[in-house]
Amino acid sequence: MISQLRRIGFAYNPTSDAAIELRERASGWAAMRGLDHWATTAADREALHRELPTTDLLVVLGGDGTFLRAARGVADVDVPLLGINVGKVGFLSKVEAGDLDRVLDLLQAGRYTLEHRMAIEGRILRGGRVDDRATGDAEPHIALNDVVVARGALARVCRLDVSIDGIHLATYVADGLVVATPTGSTGYSFSAGGPILDPTARNLVVTPIAAYLTTIRSVVVGAEVVVRCRVADAHEALVSIDGREDVPIAVGDVVEVRALERPIRLVQPEGSLPFWDLVRKKVELLPS
After folding, report:
1. pTM, whole model, 2 decimals?
2. Which member of 17, 36, 64, 246 is catalytic?
3. Which of 42, 204, 229, 280 is 20 to 30 A from residue 23's alpha carbon, by CA?
4. Tens of pLDDT along 224-280?
């Protein structure tokens, strides 16, 4: 719980007119109440890192993509997040745009709870060299939803060797592999046939994408394990972090994924729709 809401930030999607209009409304709400506030685009990591250490709450104005960009910023600075949905599906947002003022009033009055969501860290070990991790050459990539190893632009499958804590799980001939958090289980992993997990669980979901002739479709493992995916063969391949950044990788490279100890905290305003009701409502909006 935030002891007192003194400073609030707004991260928004600059390509959405609705999000820009909402930013103006939100800034006006804060100004009317004499609340210190700031705003920046969700992709401006430099501004987020500068402002977040003195911020009590970050409100994200946009769709799920905007929320995931902002979540990367709070992974290093433990600031609670609230999503205001101006996108299409918005699994990560608890509030629709029309409820902005009412919900901000609830937050100022302390009428909310905080929900912990597990995040993950992906590292690319070039040539499978484990010493890259020890020397810091393998930069960590933080994700709230998923780390995906996938084929490139050409429609040619990859061969991926997947292990759980060093124990071989399967060799997939597939379009790729998704390693998802419980929060991300409603995203790409679900589209590829994986299960939906309660978002407060601490598990990893490992799901191949369009796998050819395999009996192991999707597995759920504990948060203490390390999932490794080695590119055994591919014309071209890449790693996608929360769908927002693509890093090319080569045959022999290993993508290593593990859970982070510290969760990302999401704000649940009083009266928020329970998760499973939200899932049913959002899935009904998806095109059939």
Report:
1. 0.91
2. 64
3. 280
4. 999 999 999 998 999 999 998 889 999 999 999 999 999 999 999 998 888 888 888
